[in-house]
Amino acid sequence: MVVKTALALVPLLLLAVGFPSAAEKKSSGSAQDEQAGEERFWFENWDDAVFSAKQEHKPMVVNIYSPACGPCRFMDENVFPSPEIHERLARDWVFVKMNAFDRERTASYDNKTMTYAELTLYFRVHGFPTCLFFDRAGNPNQRVIGSMEKEDFALILDYMRDEVYASGMTFRDYQKKKAKPGK
């Protein structure tokens, strides 16, 4: 009887432990990923990303996500890995993926050490996914909340990379200009 009860609990234990999502497997950085030839174009460690952005004098985009978020999975599965976005992120940006509810990993920011969950609150992120954009000097300057198609995200990356906002041009005007070449 005890053995049957213990065996009946095994499936429940497996559910409680959980299985890694496809995104977690891909971003784990395991030898298996390297053997499969998958190139990671993002950081999972905030401090490493900040250091890289300073060294390379690149702007940084931080994708703050929730593991249970459908729109976040859409971005992970359809937008970030698409060739045009992958190329832009790898070439022009330091890209960081940060779990908004992670209470184990820490980040140094504003002379403080915070967990990723605390850093999420510090930046007042309330919706997922949220992309925070930092300029080349490391200053946060824009945020985009929600999922979008890759074409829209590509335009946002270009607008932010080229610091078009500094000229006073709104993103909507930039979007219109790009939709009508020559005007």
Please write out the topology.
Elements: H1 2-17, H2 22-26, H3 31-35, H4 46-56, E1 60-65, H5 70-79, H6 83-92, E2 94-99, E3 106-109, E4 112-115, H7 116-122, E5 130-134, E6 140-145, H8 150-161, H9 171-179
Parallel strand pairs: 1-2
Antiparallel strand pairs: 1-5, 3-4, 5-6
Helix pairs in contact: 6-8
Helix content: 40-55%
Give the CATH level 1 class of the domain at 43-148. Alpha Beta
If you consult CATH, what is the topology of the domain at 43-148? Glutaredoxin
Distance between the amino and carboxyl termini: 79 Å
Question: Which stretches are poorly predicted, pLDDT < 50 over at least 5 residues?
Answer: 1-37
Form type: globular
Tell me about the largest β-sheet: 4 strands, mixed
* Fraction of residues in β-strands: 15-25%
Q: Tell me which CATH architecture of the domain at 43-148 applies here.
A: 3-Layer(aba) Sandwich
Radius of gyration: 19 Å
Number of strands: 6
The CATH superfamily of the domain at 43-148 is identified as Glutaredoxin
Order of helices and strands: HHHHEHHEEEHEEHH
Number of helical regions:
9
Structural class per helix/strand content?
alpha+beta
